[in-house]
Amino acid sequence: MGNNIQFGINKEEFEIIKQIDILWLKKNTIISAYKVERSTIINNGVNRFRNLFTEIPNLNIKVYIVIPEKRESEAKKKINSPANIKEGISDKIKIIMFSEVMGN
């Protein structure tokens, strides 16, 4: 992924953003991001996306949390928290189920 200077992101935030599982790039622009949350805390993924949106506010980055079906209600609850709704984060994060990825 290079370094924070290439993306115009401060170093501390860059280290957090790099923890997102997949960052889809077009040259030096992040166009989408995917965080797989099989068993880890869903808030971790949401917080990483929050940092991404804060550092790069002018881009329309598509972000996705990929989860097993049994975690759907938990993910929706975390993504649609009052703070995330107020800040517009809940509208930006989409959920993808494992079965969609695996074709089951």
Description:
The protein has 104 residues and is α/β, with parallel strands linked by helices. Helix content is 46%, strand content 23%. It has one domain (4-87). The protein is built from seven helices and four strands, in the order H-H-E-E-H-E-H-H-H-E-H. It is globular, with a radius of gyration of 14 Å. The termini are far apart. The mean pLDDT is 89.
Could you name the key traits of this structure?
about 100 residues; alpha/beta; 4-stranded mixed sheet; about 25% strand
Helix count, DSSP H or I runs of 4 or more residues: 7
| Extended strand count | 4
Runs in which pLDDT lies below 50 for 5 or more consecutive residues are: none
Strand content: 15-25%
What structural class do you assign from the helix and strand content? alpha/beta
- Termini, distance in Å? 32 Å
How would you sum up the global shape? globular
Order of helices and strands: HHEEHEHHHEH
Cross-sheet strand order for the largest sheet: 1-2-3-4
Computed over alpha carbons, the radius of gyration is: 14 Å
The pLDDT mean sits at 89
Number of domains: 1
In helices, the fraction of residues equals: 40-55%
Described by strand count, sense and barrel closure, the largest sheet is: 4 strands, mixed
In brief, what are we looking at here?
This protein has 104 residues and is an alpha/beta fold. The protein has helices at residues 4-7, 11-17, 42-55, 72-79, 82-87, 89-92, 98-102, and strands at residues 22-26, 29-36, 62-67, 93-97.
